[in-house]
Task: structure prediction
Amino acid sequence: MKIGLTFDLRSAYLEMGFSELETAEFDRDDTITAIENALTTLGHKCERIGHARQLMQALTEGKRWDLVFNIAEGMYGIGREAQIPAILDVFNIPYTFSDPLVMSLTLHKGMTKRVLRDAKVAVSDFLVAEKGSEAAAISFGGPWFIKPVAEGTGKGIDPTSIVRDKAELPGAVDHLIEKFKQPVIIEPYLPGREFTVGIVGTGNVAKVLGTIEVVLLQNAEEGVYSYVNKEECEERVEYRLVHGSKDPVVKEAENTALEAWRVLGCRDGGRADLRCNANGKPLFMEVNPLAGIHPQHSDLPILCTMQNIDYLSLVEMILTSASARVTL
Result:
C-alpha cells in the first residue's frame, strides 16, 4: 500500500517558538523514522505528510494515499486529536487509530467518564469544574486529585495535584484553569497500584497485549505519575510487567480496560490507565487511543518489548487492524 504518515514533529514546533511544555505530546524525529522504517520493512511505500496544515496542502495538490498512519496530536482545541481523522474522512481516505468522535470524546476526561459510568464501567467519582468556586459543590471526600480535563503526558500533574484540605481546593483548581486555559477534573486521590494496559484491535477482536505496573522510585515525585516522572522515566520510574493469569487485581484491571476500549469504540491500538482505590479495586482513569509509539520511550512499545513483541510486530498489528477499513 501507499501509506501517508501524519505527525506533529516536536523539533519543528520548538523551532517555531513553542515551549517544551506546549510540545510535550508531540513526536521526536526518531519516532517518525522508526515508523517509516517499520512500514517500509513491511513492504509498503511510506510518504511523510506532517501536521494537519501540511495534510490539507497535500490534499489540495491532489495527493492521495491508500491509508494514512496518523499519530498527529494537534495543537489547538478540545478536538485537536480529531482534526486529521476528520480531514481524511472528508476525502474518504482510511487511517489508523480512532475516528473523530472517539478522539474528541476521549481527550475530555470528564465526558469519557460520563459515557463509561453510563455503561457501568468501573470509574471513580469526579467533578469537572470550570471555575474554582464550583469545587465547593463536591460530593465525595478527599484527598482529591486535580488535573486539566484535556491534556496528556502528565501535563499539569505534579505533587500539588493531590489536595488534602478542602479549603485549598478552589484556589488549586483556579491555578490550573489559569495555567492551561481549560476546565479541571477533580477526582478522589487513588492511593493504590497503577497500571497501564496495552490493547490492540477493534471491537470484539480487540485484545489485551499486556499490562505494566507503574512503580515510582525513591527519586520520583511522590504519589503521582507526573509530567516530570514521565519525562524522566528512565531514572524515576520502574515499569514492572504483571500478568492477569497470576494476579487477580491485574486481571480485573485488564477486563475493565478492554471493556472501556470497546464501549468507547477505540480502534487499532492504544492504552488504558487504571489506578486502585484504598480497597485495592482498579478503577479506569483514562484511555489513550493515540498512544505514543516511540520504540524505547513510550509506554505501549515498552510493554510490548517486555512481552517479547518487537516494534515491527506492534506496527504490523496496528496496520492489520486498520487495513480492514481499506478498500483498494
Summary: The chain has a mean pLDDT of 94. Residues 121 and 256 are 7 Å apart (CA to CA). The chain has three domains: 2-95, 125-188, 191-327. Residues 2-95 form a domain with the Rossmann fold fold (CATH 3.40.50.20).
